[in-house]
């Protein structure tokens, strides 16, 4: 049996090294894989005012229900999501508060809760204090300039759970309206990669892990 040529072995080894590198990148925490961020753009006064109002409304994240059945449905959802999130957030009280706030802020902004959870998974891997290479912060990786444009300029507040989730949901809703309901473009704009497929595709794939049907 003839031995393979040295060049063939080197080529094969290089191929394996490249494959190993790709696998390693895929295994990195999501906060490193998606280092993009929202781009600062001029806002007309009416839009800025509306967004600022949506941000500063300080209502606590307490779900309200029209009837008993809707409350029971929420509790069933909370139980199912809590089991899925247990590996990321082992403490029940922390999990419950986080999921309740995600549910509240998603509904408040008219967004699908599974979509928001998928985005959080891709953006920060559920890390409250995640910071990207371009400075995006918190669960939903909100760029600090938003606190100057819509708030008091205190970027440190983006590490507060409800503040971060509120900013993220309001911003994504804004982008969705700006893109006339096109979720692909809205997600790309959220990540600073408008028109490119990898980020929206990753969020939609993560979204499927958080969908819930009774």
Description:
With 214 residues, the chain is an all-alpha fold. It has one domain: Orthogonal Bundle (Lysozyme). The protein has 10 helices and no strands. The N terminus is likely disordered.
Could you outline the blueprint of secondary structure elements for this entry?
Elements lengths: L5 H22 L2 H4 L11 H12 L11 H18 L6 H17 L4 H12 L20 H6 L10 H18 L4 H9 L6 H10 L7
Helix pairs in contact: 4-5, 5-8, 6-10, 8-9, 9-10
Helical content band: 55-70%
Mean pLDDT value: 85
Structural class: mainly alpha
Any idea of the CATH topology? Lysozyme
Instruction: State the total count of DSSP E strands.
Output: 0
Uncertain runs are 1-33
What is the CA–CA distance across the termini?
A: 61 Å
**Element string (H = helix, E = strand):** HHHHHHHHHH
For the record, the CATH architecture stands as Orthogonal Bundle
Overall number of structural domains: 1
Helix count equals 10
CATH class: Mainly Alpha
What is the radius of gyration computed over CA atoms, rounded to a whole number of angstroms? 20 Å
Beta content: under 5%
For the report, how would you describe the main beta sheet?
none
Shape, please?
globular
Relevant terms:
single chain, Lysozyme, 214 residues
Short note summarizing the structure:
This protein has 214 residues and is an all-alpha fold. The chain has a single domain, classed as Lysozyme (Orthogonal Bundle), CATH 1.10.530. It is built from ten helices and no strands.
């Amino acid at each position: 049996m003839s031995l393979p040529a040295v060049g063939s072995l080197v080529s094969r080894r290089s191929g394996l090294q490249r494959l190993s590198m790709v696998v390693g990148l895929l295994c990195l925490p999501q906060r490193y894989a998606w280092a993009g961020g929202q781009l600062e753009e001029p806002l007309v006064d009416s839009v800025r005012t509306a967004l600022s109002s949506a941000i500063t409304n300080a209502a606590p994240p307490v779900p309200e229900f029209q009837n008993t059945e809707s409350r029971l449905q929420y509790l069933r959802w909370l139980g199912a999501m809590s089991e899925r999130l247990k590996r990321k957030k082992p403490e029940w009280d922390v999990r419950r508060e986080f999921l309740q706030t995600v549910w509240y802020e998603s509904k408040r902004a008219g967004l699908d809760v599974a979509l928001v959870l998928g985005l959080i998974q891709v953006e920060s891997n559920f890390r409250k204090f995640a910071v990207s290479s371009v400075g995006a912060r918190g669960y939903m990786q909100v760029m600090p300039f938003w606190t100057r444009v819509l708030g008091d300029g205190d970027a440190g507040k983006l590490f507060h759970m409800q503040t971060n989730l509120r900013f993220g949901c309001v911003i994504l809703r804004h982008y969705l309206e700006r893109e006339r309901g096109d979720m692909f473009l809205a997600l790309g704009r959220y990540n600073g990669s408008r028109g490119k497929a990898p980020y929206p595709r990753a969020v939609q794939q993560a979204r499927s892990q958080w969908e819930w049907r009774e």
